[in-house]
Amino acid sequence: MKQNKKSYTKIALTLSICLLVLWGLMGTGTTIAWFTDTTDAEQNTFLIGELDLVVSHKLENGLYEEIDVDTKVFDDEALYEPGYVQVVYLKVENKGDVPFDYKLAVDVNSVNTAKSVLGNDIYLPNYLKYGVIFGDSEEALTREVAKLKSITDFPEIEESTSYPLNTYAQQDSVTLQPEQERFVALIVRMPEEVGNAANYRGVEVPTVELGITVKAVQEGAPL
């Protein structure tokens, strides 16, 4: 009789723990939903939860085209050398009715190595930096980028475009209100001081395929 009573007690405790866990999940269901919709892709990654986020990139004709997971945003055939700068313009839109925080990163999708004139292997991501500039309008953003590219004082350039690839560009997120849009410039460059370390020799050319990651969560949630 005592043994049965002990078994019933264990069962009751187990059920109680399960019910508490289930109740806790139900009570925080909205928070969990923020992070459940994740889509990985060959080119780009969008971690956007249940928010209505639209990201477009600027074409050569000046129009913006919506980015999907397969869109090539960067020039895969770019010949990087010390001082080289590549700029990609984006438009981020909140099409929903909930404000969200977001941040961006430039990622490495694939790499082809080659030998340098110094005899070392050239792994381009090691020699590239990037930065992000935000603008409330396309005109204001274009002026800021032109100003940055004309700067000859290296420390100021380094401060604006000093992030390694595969890391988020800003520590603090940016908030976008419902029906609001914001313009973004992603700047990828090879610093001048790289020198001959990335100067290849022979027929093999070092290349890198870049993509972007955009992460967004409802305003106030951990990002």
- Contiguous runs where pLDDT drops below 50 for at least 5 residues: 5-41
Q: Strand-and-helix sequence, N→C?
A: HHEEEEEEEEEHHEEEE
Number of strands: 13
Largest sheet: 6 strands, antiparallel
Explained architecture:
This protein has 223 residues and is of the alpha+beta class. The chain has 2 domains: 1-33; 39-218, no CATH class. The chain contains 4 helices and 13 strands. The chain has helices at residues 2-27, 29-33, 138-149, 154-160; strands at 38-39, 45-47, 53-58, 64-66, 85-94, 100-112, 114-115, 121-122, 129-135, 163-164, 174-176, 181-189, 207-218. The chain has a 6-stranded antiparallel beta sheet. A hairpin with a 5-residue loop joins strand 7 (114-115) and strand 8. The longest helix has 26 residues, at 2-27. Mean pLDDT is 76; it is low at 5-41.
Write the SSE topology:
Layout: H1 2-27, H2 29-33, E1 38-39, E2 45-47, E3 53-58, E4 64-66, E5 85-94, E6 100-112, E7 114-115, E8 121-122, E9 129-135, H3 138-149, H4 154-160, E10 163-164, E11 174-176, E12 181-189, E13 207-218
Parallel strand pairs: 2-13
Antiparallel strand pairs: 1-2, 3-4, 3-5, 5-12, 6-11, 6-13, 7-8, 9-10, 9-12
